[in-house]
Fold this protein.
Amino acid sequence: MTSHREAPSISKDPVADNTDLYAFVSPDATDTVTLIANFVPLQDPAGGPNFHSFGDDVQYSIYVDNDHDGDADITYQFAFNTVVTNPGTFLYNTGPISSLTDPNWNVRQFYSVTQNLHNGTGPDDATVLGRHLPCPPVNVGPRSIPDSPGYGSLAAAAVNDLGNGIKVFAGQRGEGFYVDLGSIFDLGTLRPFQGAHLIQIPTSDNYPPPNGPNGGADGTKGYNVHSIAIQVPKTQLTKDGSNPTDPSSPKSVIGVWAAASRQRNKHASGLDGSGNVEQGHESGPFTQVSRLGMPLINEVVIPVGQKDFWNLSHPSKDSQFLSNYQKPELQVLLPVLYPGVFPNLAGISASRADLVAILLTGIPSGLIAGFQNYTGPIQADHLRLNMAIPPNPATSNNNPAPTDPARFGLLGGDLAGFPNGRRVFDNVTAVELRAIAGVTYPLVDPSYTPDPAAGLLTDGTTNDVPYLSAFPYLALPHQGYLHYHDPNSPDA
């Protein structure tokens, strides 16, 4: 998982846990960029009566760096508040919900959006873009959310047009990331290649072979997340307000990351002088507790002793973690866990300049024809998006076939895909596995020949939940009444 429960402290604080970050040129509105930050991982849809929500005590932020100094030039800040209309019932809703103002809907969330422009010298230029914007309800089930108007209509009504070309959405979505969690964290097993693993287990009723179409079991299938999505004209993201049209121009590239922050001081709940429950509250300045740029970094690249510190650190200081990128632990483990499969990878002794470029600085011009997303020498964990590269028309419906090379982004020949930002369907697990296994090392050492297996690595999963072709793109959430997790799991 790209950042689900990836560090000891944040695993105990799910409402502040960044799970995924996406940044891409909108396929149906190509003069805009869509930024999506997901939080609250691994939500079982049947999680009532207190269904999952955003944290009223968490400050959620999406940052944009457009001058390549590693610091934010634009921040989109989101703050939530929960309103209970009938505290005398245990029910989330007391009848069918037919609209965002239906009196049957008992527990609602609203939010505000503030844009902060940072000039680096004086106070921020803060503009409230929207107040008291409604989130849609969670997808409880067919009696709570009847077929007419249907959940899709309720969710669509929660897409807010803020003017000046900006759209925003905040609410529950179907988990868009796919990964074989149960296998990968069982000593690096990749089910499609488990026959070559160092530790063999018997195939039996207890450990049947995978029966999925691609050999993997999606550990996040059937779960939901909470998404914050904002669509912004490109001209509002460039430093000089221009429309980026030249892919070779540095000003066409932005760096994006997301974070969650909490106030320093927490006052616990208790009883007041009359014996009534007094709710806890927070005070003091906000402090970052979770962040996310590139997928799978704190998950796999950063060692466990540094994970909490990484979450508290600012991306512009990421040079302090450089050694973890120069020779990632997984690069060392693959030849050990799969004996004889990665001899060339085992022979790499130089630091991985290719991974440093891909993950920390962006890829300079001249390495991949027609492409660059370089943001200069400052090493920072950002998603880097070249906004001048148009979407791939073949993926405009956001649902390429599982075998379509576009899912592999740059490794599949698609300049509009990961690590050029990240689209909702990009197979980032396979891309990063292959990069760490040496597929990208010839970019810096043309004499190197990747091991044949390196270009085939995958965890064997794809997401068959239909992504949307329009904002906010991630699929509708799974409902609590009727849901399933991966039916292709060996233990299904």
About this structure: DSSP finds nine helices and 14 strands in the chain. Residues 141 and 246 are 48 Å apart (CA to CA). The radius of gyration is 23 Å.
